[in-house]
Design goal:
The strands form three sheets. The protein has a five-stranded mixed β-sheet, with no helix packed on it. It has a three-stranded antiparallel β-sheet with strand order 1-2-3, covered by helices on one side. Strands 4-7 form a two-stranded antiparallel ribbon. It has 128 residues and is an alpha+beta fold. 16% of the residues lie in helices and 36% in strands.
Amino acid sequence: MSRELIKEKFTCVSCPRGCKLSVFKEESGEITVTGNLCKGGELYAMQEIKDPRRNISSTVIIEGGVLPSLPVKTSSPIPKALIFDVMKEINTVKTQAPKKMGDVIIENVLNTGIDIVASRTCRKAEQR
């Protein structure tokens, strides 16, 4: 029985163990995962093969705030192929203080259904 190696020796991040996973396509067409010590590893490997996604953390300029920039992040993981395009969108944004953690900074970025949200509260700078 033959099997085709799809991806070899990548590190699982679903739990602290950091298992080294390999993914194979069996002769029957079934996809199998080896190296995982928990079910989460198998699920992570399948996701990574079919639709790899990543979280993005960055900053945007915030005007009138006590900070010069506001930390932001994706509300959920985005397709890995869109990382650079999402970063281009984030880098065009300026926002106004005040902002609360969780406030939407970019709604539905690149029509993904995923928002870019503030990951810290920033209050308005005091007027002197």
